Amino acid sequence: MNRNVLIPTFVLGLSLIVAGCQSPEATAQATPAAAPPAIDVSVVSATTGSIEAALEISGTLAPRSRVPVKPRVPGTLERVLVDIGDAVTAGQTIATMDRREIDAQVDAAVAAVAVAKASVENAEAGLSNAILESDRAQVLFDKGALPRQRLDAAQTARRSSTAQRDLATANLAQAEASLRRAREVQRDATITSPVTGFIVERNYDAGAIPGDKPVAVVADLRQMKLEAGVSELEAGRLRVGMKARVEAQAKPGEHFDGELAAINPEVDERNRHFRIEVRVPNEGRQLLSGMYATARVVESTKDDIVRLPKDAVATRDGARMVLKVQDGVVTPTEVTEGVSDGTFVQILSGVTAGDTVVADGRRQVAAGSKVRAVAAR
């Protein structure tokens, strides 16, 4: 075979053998690495606006006043004039007791007063006569026409008549006091409402003998209250008179304006909480006793501030940080926070209005990562 043909053929075969023995890793190293793809992240922008610093409490609504009505005298109920839900005014009769025995006691007391008055009149007449006899005896004695013994007897009779008159007067006063007491008992047999409100509980019917329970309970629903316990730090920021916004679970989309009406100055030793009370007008009776509600007590309002959604700020390495996005690159940035309303947080430093940050500050995105910004919904 021609030598000029064998040499190129041998070289070609050797090249194929070498290429077949080369490792895949070596081939990969020879190819340039591709850049990692950009990550899609939800972003939000820092805005300028207002924030209300507020404290939220929740609990069950209760009437401002709730008064149980019990009879003041023992006995049997003769009539019950109200039912649950009825509106009553202060002084209105809600029930009466059987007062036949009480009326008889009043009649006896009236008769006793009449007897006592007659006794007083009789004693007054006897005293008048004794005074005349004593004066007459004194005149005769002065003229020497009457012995000393008769004068002494007349004066003694006068003192005795005076004592009889005083005793009769005291008996009259005692009889009148008994009559007043009997009439008070008579009045107590009529059970009246002590406050204006609504009947929220009725426990007995006519003919029953009331026991430990009240005959009825009257609640003043014109003003409702919401009570809760707050920590020492929270109590220190609150002041009586602060405005509150009350929302009831049973009234979605509605809110009612109230105010912080009371702060207990003594801590509850069991949980180290201070009791506070928010009151809200309820003239239209839209709020009912027992409804679950929340109250937002406004501590202060900050206007024209830089703010971010609170979820955009997270704690990293002991500092409060946001993931700022600029030109598609993520840069962790430390920020200083101010007040918060539970939805937004005030940013004092680190971010200015218009800056874009990752919506979820807890998302694990490395510094310098390329991202594709997607507006948060």
Count of runs of 4 or more consecutive helical residues: 5
**What fold name goes in the CATH topology slot of the largest domain?**
OB fold (Dihydrolipoamide Acetyltransferase, E2P)
Q: How much of the residues is beta strand, in percent?
A: 35-45%
Q: What is the strand tally?
A: 20
CATH superfamily of the largest domain: RNA polymerase II/Efflux pump adaptor protein, barrel-sandwich hybrid domain
Return residue spans where pLDDT drops below 50 for at least 5 consecutive residues: 1-21, 23-28
CATH class of the largest domain: Mainly Beta
Number of domains: 3
Q: Give the C-alpha Rg.
A: 48 Å
Helix share bin: 25-40%
> What pattern of helices and strands is seen along the backbone?
HHEEEEEEHHEEEHEEEEEEEEEEE
What is the global morphology?
A: elongated
What is the average of the pLDDT values?
87
Characterize the biggest β-sheet.
11 strands, antiparallel
Question: Can you name the CATH architecture of the largest domain?
Answer: Beta Barrel
**In whole angstroms, how far apart are the ends?**
80 Å
Helix/strand-derived class? alpha+beta
Structure explained in plain terms:
By secondary structure, the chain is of the alpha+beta class. It folds into 3 domains: 41-51 and 303-375, conserved putative lor/sdh protein from methanococcus maripaludis s2 fold (Beta Barrel); 62-97 and 189-290, OB fold (Dihydrolipoamide Acetyltransferase, E2P) (Beta Barrel); 99-187. The chain has 5 helices and 20 strands. Strands 2, 3, 5, 8, 9, 10, 11, 12, 13, 17 and 18 form an 11-stranded antiparallel beta sheet that branches. Strands 1, 14, 15, 16, 19 and 20 form a 6-stranded mixed beta sheet that branches. It has a 3-stranded antiparallel beta sheet with strand order 4-6-7. A hairpin with a 2-residue loop joins strand 15 and strand 16. Helix 3 runs antiparallel to helix 4.
